[in-house]
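Q&A log
Question type: sequence-to-structure
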Amino acid sequence: MRSADTAGRTDDASFAASDPGRLFLWFPVGLALRKVRRFLRQTDEHFCTVPTGALVVDAPRGYPDELLGDLGDLLTDDEGADTRCVFKAGPGDLDVSDIRRVRTIAELRRLRGSAWLLDMLRGNRLTSVFQPIVHADETSRVLGHEALVRGIGDDGEHVLAGSLFDAARGCGMLSELDLAARRSAISAAATQDERRRLFINLTSDAVRSGIPDFALTIDAVDAADLRRDHVVFEMTEAEQASDVRQLRSVVHAVRDAGFRVALDDVGYAEHARRLVHEVRPDFVKLDMERVRTSPLPRTGDAERLMDLAQHLKVETIAEGVETSEELEWNRARGVTYVQGYFIARPAALRASLAGARAVRAP
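Response status: OK
Response body:
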């Protein structure tokens, strides 16, 4: 996993490239090549074909954003997805290090459209807010806090996690953002004397990468002098995992390293119960949105899941609790902990420590 401060350097340069260079293009079919050659002649661009079969276009003003945009408009979606290219600063030919930077036209357009995210990562302009996770029967008792990443825009305003991760998926930077978000959370937690549990998200891509790519996060936890057994990694989108065996292996490896594990965004149906039974996490986070939008009561499913969790000694957390009725619904079904806007909104950690609403069980 590449660190955030190197994000972008292994892709098409620095995203502020102004040095002259050349754009190398490879086309899947002759029709696409002929369309591009005809366009380049009309726009008086200087180009040639090299022995490797690449069409090479001079870019005297640096990274050819405008040209890539024009080519993206000129080619069909299929042609743009199959035409490969790479920009090289300077007059030299390609070398081995350039090969790994080769992208399709479609990928490069998405990458350039997400330049703001790459600038944010390189400038360390990420921060974390925290939402309390509290005991269901006495919400003033705080178990810990979930860290939620935010970007800091040029105007100083927060950029929400959804926008960050959408951009990261589009430009292939999900691993970099995921690692930077975890580091931000760990750094923020290390500034406080508070030592309650810290819940940190792991995306499904990070889970698929396995424990070797997890080493940088372990180093950050140790460098911050946080207790490993007080850090809980939430496996996001766990219920959509296509390889439960691999998920179980990662969960066991993370736990063996001294951390605790939660499965995030879990529903109440049979598949969810089977997942909990096979993976055996420390916590399972239940998605209240599924209850809220279900046309039928989920009481029976919920109670079966709670019975299974209690049998396996898996603690349950209902997330997304927004009303007193939802809090009582979870209490009645034996949920251990709750989290949501009814209890407290995400905030800076110091404010989050004091911000949980106290609602005792009757």
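Response note: The longest strand covers residues 142-152.
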